[in-house]
Design goal:
8 helices, Rossmann fold, 201 residues, two-stranded antiparallel sheet, alpha/beta, single chain, five-stranded parallel sheet, binds adenosine-5'-diphosphate
């Protein structure tokens, strides 16, 4: 009986909720019209783990966008050192006082996530020529699949241009037995805490 109503609602981007036996309610499934007025960017990455370089991109992005959605990729193929839950928890902790930052996880195609979230801007960071080629290719392929998507690149801050999650992971793996060195030069404290918790468990 409700089938037609549900189809109609979904075609208008609304999610249907059942409010009791006979009543249907609707909630906005996608962003509401006020949100559409907002400039929202999606910052995707593996964040294995998040570094000061990523944090800097997000903070600077806040001067360009009203909101930033940090999308933590499952990236199962990359065999991450930090499990997805920890990667998300860490980002949430780092930005716990920033109401304009949201953290979500995703797997699958970025363009599909953009479509689901009704977001048109991808934010990425570029540390130098080694990032440039890959990022360019990625942006072009995303734009080929969804021409209305734009990628905005922010140049890495000079003090973080050599900071990478992969080197942080190397330091963690090599330093496990002895010392983690001064990892706080490269990553927020929440990363070090999370790693120590993982070691204990
Ligand atoms: P991915 O697995 O998609 O490469 P990363 O988590 O490694 O994800 O990086 C996410 C984004 O952040 C990428 O655009 C990457 O170039 C950028 N990035 C990584 N490290 C830094 C840094 N130190 N400064 C600025 N941008 C960075």
């Amino acid at each position: 009986m409700y089938k037609q109503a549900i189809c109609d609602a979904e075609s208008r981007g609304l999610a249907v909720i059942l409010l009791g036996d006979y009543t249907l309610g609707y909630i906005e499934n996608k962003r509401n019209s006020r949100d559409i007025m907002k400039k929202i960017a999606l910052y995707p990455g593996t964040f294995d783990p998040i570094t000061h370089g990523h944090v800097n991109i997000i903070q600077r992005g806040l001067s360009l966008f009203d909101e930033i959605i940090v999308a933590v990729s499952v990236s199962a193929g990359k065999n991450p050192l930090f499990p997805l839950k920890e990667r998300i928890d860490i980002v949430q902790q780092v930005f716990s006082h920033s109401p304009r930052i949201q953290v979500i996880s995703f797997s699958g195609l970025l363009v599909d996530l953009m479509h689901e979230q009704n977001i048109k801007i991808i934010l990425r960071g570029i540390r130098g020529s080694s990032d440039l080629e890959y990022e360019f290719q990625l942006a072009n392929m995303n734009q080929a699949m969804k021409p209305d998507i734009e990628t905005v690149f922010l140049k890495a801050a000079p003090q973080y241009a050599n900071v990478s999650s992969s080197i942080v992971r190397e330091i963690i793996k090599m330093g496990k037995e002895r010392s983690l060195g001064d990892l706080s030069l490269f990553v927020p404290e929440a990363v070090i805490d999370a790693f120590q918790q993982l070691e204990k468990s």
